[in-house]
Structure formats: structure tokens, C-alpha cells
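User: Just a sanity check before I run the rest of the batch. Below are the C-alpha cells for the first item. I only need the designed sequence back.
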């Protein structure tokens, strides 16, 4: 994505213009304030290299040259009130510069000897020029020789000034230099911190640019060689400056590459820039190799390299303006300004423009402002970085949430499977609803969550979380049951503001997949008007579906299990399960030393019933007898069909008289019941044999035999009676 111009650019550009205006005002003031110097006539001495143009003496650069010129000037009479006179020259990269001549008495006089690359220890920090104090007693016409030697192109403008005026000018220059250094230093620091925070590589390029720029400006001004650590660079003399210039050109190209995002676009310009940067680094290395045959060419090559980088920068910036890259046009304007200031400096070095603060240092200020603007425009990269980070974080949060919900879904499924498997049918739906709410509420926070169902698997259900709100919810649901039923039958979840709530609240209604005519809803209520997200409602729907599905499955499994245990005709236990029950209850009772009785109940003359009513009528009678028996038995007693027209009742906790009493009750119940079949009333009786578990009996076989015998005895005893088996039959 391409960064766009933003209102921020406008503010930034306005701020920048303000700064530039302040700077320009300062420079103009400095130039205006410059002291008029007394005129010096310069005359190159015959036989020595060096040209002059008016007041300026030119050193051509490339190979090492030495120029000697005669300086003629008239010194006003000494004034004890005012400072002495000095000859002042700009601080050009000269290997040596000094003045010599003779005083009024003809005695030889020689000035301080300066070497740009090896500054004297006594010189002030950040010296701004070469100052040659003249003896205080000199006056009238003076002739001196100016000796200068160096391999860097320079234009020497000797000026005759009062020392105080020279100091004032020097202070101005120092202020400019210090400002430029501080600016680059701070910039380097800021972009380094930004890199540490964002890990955005563009800031490394900006850091290298600011750091190399700082070294380069300090080298151009000669201040670098004052620093103990860097004084070693003086061994390379001018070559060190050209190496730094080439490195700076390369770092500017790299910064431009990143600023204009050329790499991302895969533009061919990116490859050119990369290649050119490598060439510039190689050029810097060549400068430091200091090969004598190449030495005269290095200045020109480094300058060419710089001009090429400048040209490339203009092309890229022009393109960036077209592509609406952030801050492109203020940077382009600044680049033009920097190039203009650089050309002014070159014109000064060639003697075409006077040596002023502006021509000497203007390009330095422009470069600092340009670099600062370019580096700060990389803030747009921070925006991208921040966006990316936000996107990553959102994605992470989203995936964590999704994983959390997936885990909750699995947990709900597992809990439903585990808890519903052996649940008695009456509790099945309640348990499913409870589990649904328990697992849903942490995922979809709700002040109240409820499962409401009518006619669900044949019964009504209301489970509320938290339980304290059950009554309120029950009243609320009852009050609008009709509307809710309509809503549930639509099958589409919805949410609405809670009309009667004192504070703002929202209610989500998620229909439960319940077979008609039953209906049910998952009701979620939440404080505030924000309501539930689509995702939350979808999750609630899915949880509700899971819970209902598992409840249905558990019910079906329960019914299947029951059908395998029950006798299809009478609904009592079948022979297989009554056998299991017999074994189980006998073992149980023997372990606990509890009473247990066993009743064999046989319908009297069933054959004749069958004969009279037909087989279907017989079946009907069997069902009616089973119902009568079940009605007379008590909770905990078991009834099963042992086969044909014979039933078995198991009475845990009963023995002897108790069991007989129950046998009587059963017999009487059957006798009382009048079975109606096809308009005929049939009277049915049963004979019952009772056997009670003996103390050491843990299996039912013997008791079954006794009960059978007792039944046989009852039959023999005239039927429709109860016979209790003795402990031992004789
Ligand atoms: N309708 C119907 N009849 C059955 C079923 N199972 C057995 N029977 C009949 O039940 C009758 C049992 O007759 P019996 O064992 O001779 O005894 P009873 O006629 O009841 O006479 P007592 O038991 O001596 O009073 C037989 O006629 C069987 O056909 C059944 O599932 N349905």
C-alpha cells in the first residue's frame, strides 16, 4: 500500500517553512552584519602556481599544489582602544598556510603555520577560520607573502579585519556548525531509538545517513581532525573527506530507496540505486587505499558521485511526488535548496562567489534539514508498522478467541456425552440445559442466561443462571409466552432491547431445535445497549444445537435400552432382565443382610380366557393384569413377565408376613379389576406363590423353585389365593 499525503504533511511542511524562514533571517542578518574588511591587493608571485580573480587566490586541487601571493595593504595607525588587526582566511582543507614578510625595521616576520588536518592544540574548539594576528605596532603600507599548500580545490580570500570583528564572525560560524552537528546527532539518536522500538530497517538507513553526514560535515569544517579518535583520519588528508563524501552519497541513496519504498515496487530504479550505492562504497574504499596514481582523480570522482546521487535523488523524489508518497514535495523542495546551496559552495570554492557564511555553510544547514525531513517522513513507516502490529494483535486475539470457543465447544460436547449417558430420563433435559448454560456463559458473558422449553420430550423446563433470577425470569417468560413461542417457531435468533429493564439492557433469543409442538428458547440478557455480536449469537445457537442434539440422542439411547429390558406386550421387565434383576437383588440383599421376597403370579385358567376372547383378547387381559399388579406394587418393587401368563414380583425389604400381605394385595387388585374386552366384562384372578430369601441365599435359584412350588400349591389349593412357601418343602 502506498502512503498517501495526509494533513500531517501540511503541518509538517508549514513547520519546516517556518524553521527555514528563521534560518534565512539569521543568515541574512549574519551576512549583513559582516564587517567590511580593509582591502588587500593580491598579486601571485611569478613562477608559483595559482590564479587569482580580484581579491581571491585559487588553489586548483587534485594534485598537491603550492601557491604564493603578495598581499599589499595599508594598516591604519594603531589604536590602543581597539583590537589589533588580523589577516583572516576561511578554513579550507589546506596542508599548510602561513604568512611571511618583514616588519618596518626590515626584520623578517613569520606568522603562525596552520595545517587543516593537524589543528594546533591551542586552537579553540570548532575553529572557524585561519587567523593571523599582525604585530600591534605595524602601520602604513605592508607587504606580506601568503603561502598555501594543499591538494583540495580552494579559493583563498584573505581579509584584513579587526580581531574583535573576526571573532564575531567566527562565533556565527561556530553557532551554525554546532547547530548542524547537534541536529544530526539528535537525528541519529532519534532514528536509532525508533529502530529499537519498531525494528523498521528504514531507520537504520536514516541513522547511517545522519552519522556519516555528521562525520562528513565535521571533516569539511576541519573539526573532525580535532577529535582524538578521528585525528588518525588526518593521515589520509583530503582522501578521508572524499571517502566520507562517497559513503554519505551511498547512504543518502539507501535512505531514498527506503523512503520512496522503491524496493517494494520492484522498480528498476531500485536496482540502479543499489548498484550505484555499491560503486560509491567502492569509491570510498579506493579513497582510503590512497593509491598515488589515482589520488589526483579522487576529488573529481567523489564530486561526480555526489552529483550523480543528487540527480538520482531528484528523479526519485519527482516520482515520489507523482506517487503521492508522504512528504515528497517538501523533501523535493529541500533537495533543490540543498543542491542550490551546494552549487553556491562550489562557486565559492572556485572563486566565483564571495566566501560568506551562506556560501560556506549554507549547504550544511540545508543537508541537515533535508536529512531530518526525510528521516522524520519515515514516520509513515511507523504508521504502517503500527497498523501491521495492530492487525497481528487482532488476528492473534481473534485466533485465541476462536481457539477458546473451540475448546469450550469440545468441553461442552464431552460433558454432555459423559453426563447424559446414564442420566434417568426425567433429568436428561435439565442436565443438558445446565451444561449448556455453564459452558456458554463464560464465552458469551450474560447477566442472565436461561433455557426455557415447553413440551420438550414431553415436559416443561426452565433452567436459569444465576439461579436467584429464576423467579423473575419465570414470571417474565410466562408474561410473554405467546410472543416467545412465535419467535421460537421462526427458528431465527434475534436480539432486542429489554423494554422493561430499569437500566439499558439487551436480550438475545436463540431458538432451541425442539420438535413441534414443543418449543424452547435460549434467553441471554446483557447490560447495556451494545448487545451481542453475530459471532456470539452464532456460538449460542451452536451450543444450543449441541445440547439439544445430545439430549435427543441420550433419550433415544435410553428408550432403546428400556425396550431391550421391557416386555413389549405388558411394559413390565422381560424374562432376560428379570433374571438379571433376580441375581442382582439376591446378591445385594445377601451382602446387606436384607429381606427379599419373590412372588410368582400366574393367571388362573388363562387357556380358557384365550379360548373365549381369542389370542388378542388374551393379550389384552395380560396387559390389564400387568397394569393392576403395577398399580398395587410399591416403589422399589419390580415386576416382570416370566413367560406366558406368569408374572414375577421382586419385593426388596419384605419377608414372610409382609410378603404375603403384598401377595394378597396383588391378588385382590387383579380380582377387583374388571377387564373389558369387546363389550364383555371378564373377571380374572391370579394364584400367587411367595418365597422369601433365606439367610444364606445369595442366588435366586432355590427361592425360584420354592416360589414355583408355592404357586403350584396355590393352584392346587383352588386358585385365586396366595401360598407362602415354607423354608423347606416336604
Ligand atoms: N393370548 C396369549 N396367550 C398366551 C400367551 N402366552 C401363553 N399363552 C397361553 O396361556 C395358556 C396357558 O395355559 P396353561 O398353562 O394350560 O394354564 P391355564 O389355562 O392358565 O390354567 P392354570 O394355570 O392351571 O390355571 C396357553 O393356552 C397359552 O397359549 C400370550 O402371550 N398371549
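Assistant: Here's the designed sequence for the first item:
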Amino acid at each position: 500500500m502506498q502512503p498517501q499525503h495526509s494533513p500531517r504533511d501540511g503541518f509538517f511542511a508549514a513547520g519546516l517553512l517556518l524553521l527555514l524562514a528563521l534560518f534565512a533571517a539569521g543568515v541574512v542578518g549574519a551576512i549583513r552584519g559582516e564587517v567590511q574588511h580593509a582591502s588587500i591587493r593580491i598579486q601571485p608571485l611569478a613562477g608559483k602556481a595559482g590564479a587569482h580573480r580580484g581579491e581571491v587566490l585559487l588553489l586548483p586541487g587534485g594534485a598537491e599544489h603550492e601557491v604564493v601571493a603578495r598581499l599589499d595593504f595599508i594598516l591604519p595607525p594603531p589604536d590602543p582602544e581597539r583590537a589589533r588587526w588580523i589577516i583572516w582566511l576561511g578554513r579550507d582543507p589546506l596542508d599548510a598556510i602561513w604568512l611571511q614578510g618583514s616588519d618596518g625595521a626590515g626584520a623578517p616576520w613569520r606568522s603562525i603555520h596552520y595545517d587543516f588536518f593537524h589543528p594546533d592544540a591551542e586552537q579553540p574548539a570548532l575553529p572557524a577560520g585561519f587567523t593571523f594576528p599582525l604585530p600591534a605596532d605595524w602601520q602604513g603600507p605592508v607587504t606580506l607573502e601568503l603561502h598555501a599548500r594543499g591538494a583540495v580545490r580552494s579559493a583563498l580570500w584573505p581579509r584584513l579585519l579587526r580581531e574583535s570583528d573576526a571573532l564575531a564572525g567566527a562565533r556565527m560560524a561556530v553557532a551554525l556548525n554546532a547547530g548542524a552537528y547537534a541536529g544530526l546527532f539528535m537525528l541519529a539518536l532519534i532514528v536509532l531509538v525508533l529502530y529499537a522500538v519498531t525494528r523498521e530497517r528504514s531507520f537504520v538507513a536514516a541513522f547511517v545517513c545522519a552519522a556519516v553526514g555528521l562525520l562528513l560535515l565535521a571533516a569539511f569544517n576541519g573539526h573532525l581532525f580535532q577529535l582524538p579518535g578521528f585525528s588518525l583520519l588526518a593521515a589520509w588528508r583530503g582522501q578521508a573527506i572524499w571517502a566520507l563524501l562517497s559513503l554519505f552519497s551511498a547512504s543518502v541513496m539507501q535512505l531514498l530507496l527506503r523512503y520512496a519504498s522503491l524496493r517494494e515496487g520492484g522498480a528498476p530504479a531500485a536496482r540502479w540505486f543499489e548498484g550505484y550505492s555499491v560503486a560509491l562504497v567502492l569509491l570510498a574504499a579506493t579513497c582510503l587505499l590512497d593509491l598515488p596514481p589515482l589520488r589526483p582523480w579522487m576529488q573529481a570522482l567523489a564530486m561526480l558521485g555526489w552529483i550523480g546521487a543528487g540527480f538520482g535523488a531528484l528523479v526519485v523524489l519527482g516520482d515520489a511526488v507523482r506517487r503521492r508518497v508522504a512528504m515528497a514535495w517538501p523533501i523535493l523542495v529541500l533537495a533543490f535548496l540543498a543542491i542550490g546551496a551546494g552549487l553556491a559552495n562550489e562557486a565559492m570554492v572556485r572563486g566565483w562567489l564571495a566566501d560568506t557564511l551562506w556560501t560556506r555553510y549554507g549547504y550544511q544547514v540545508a543537508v541537515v534539514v533535508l536529512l531530518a525531513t526525510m528521516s522524520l517522513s519515515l514516520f509513515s513507516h511507523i504508521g504502517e508498522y503500527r497498523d501491521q502490529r495492530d492487525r497481528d494483535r487482532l488476528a492473534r486475539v481473534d485466533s485465541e478467541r476462536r481457539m477458546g470457543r473451540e475448546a469450550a465447544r469440545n468441553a461442552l460436547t464431552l460433558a454432555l456425552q459423559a453426563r447424559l449417558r446414564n442420566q434417568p430420563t426425567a433429568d436428561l433435559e435439565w442436565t443438558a440445559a445446565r451444561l449448556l448454560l455453564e459452558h456458554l456463559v463464560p464465552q458469551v458473558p450474560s447477566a442472565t442466561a436461561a433455557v426455557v422449553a415447553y413440551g420438550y420430550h414431553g415436559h416443561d423446563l426452565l433452567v436459569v443462571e444465576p439461579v436467584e433470577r429464576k423467579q423473575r425470569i419465570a414470571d417474565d417468560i410466562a408474561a410473554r409466552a405467546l410472543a416467545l413461542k412465535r419467535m421460537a417457531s421462526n427458528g431465527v435468533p434475534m436480539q432486542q432491547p429489554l423494554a422493561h429493564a430499569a437500566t439499558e439492557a439487551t436480550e438475545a433469543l436463540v431458538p432451541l431445535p425442539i420438535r413441534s409442538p414443543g418449543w424452547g428458547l435460549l434467553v441471554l440478557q446483557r447490560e447495556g445497549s451494545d448487545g451481542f455480536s453475530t459471532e456470539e449469537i452464532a456460538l449460542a445457537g451452536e451450543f444450543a444445537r449441541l445440547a439439544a442434539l445430545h439430549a435427543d440422542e441420550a433419550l433415544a439411547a435410553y428408550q432403546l435400552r428400556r425396550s431391550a429390558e421391557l416386555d413389549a406386550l405388558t411394559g413390565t421387565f422381560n424374562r432376560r432382565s428379570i433374571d438379571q434383576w433376580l441375581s442382582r437383588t439376591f446378591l445385594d440383599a445377601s451382602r446387606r443382610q436384607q429381606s427379599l421376597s419373590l412372588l410368582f403370579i400366574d393367571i388362573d385358567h388363562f387357556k380358557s380366557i384365550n379360548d373365549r376372547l381369542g389370542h388378542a383378547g388374551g393379550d389384552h387381559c395380560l396387559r390389564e393384569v400387568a397394569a393392576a399388579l403395577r398399580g398395587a406394587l410399591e416403589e422399589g418393587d419390580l415386576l416382570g413377565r416370566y413367560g406366558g401368563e406368569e408374572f414375577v414380583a421382586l419385593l426388596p425389604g419384605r419377608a414372610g408376613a409382609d410378603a404375603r400381605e403384598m401377595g394378597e394385595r396383588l391378588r385382590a387388585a387383579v380380582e377387583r379389576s374388571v377387564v373389558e374386552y369387546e363389550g364383555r366384562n371378564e373377571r380374572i384372578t391370579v394364584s400367587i406363590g411367595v418365597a422369601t430369601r433365606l439367610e444364606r441365599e445369595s442366588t435366586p435359584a432355590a427361592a425360584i423353585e420354592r416360589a414355583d412350588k408355592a404357586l403350584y400349591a396355590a393352584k392346587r389349593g383352588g386358585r385365586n389365593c396366595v401360598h407362602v412357601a415354607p423354608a423347606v418343602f416336604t
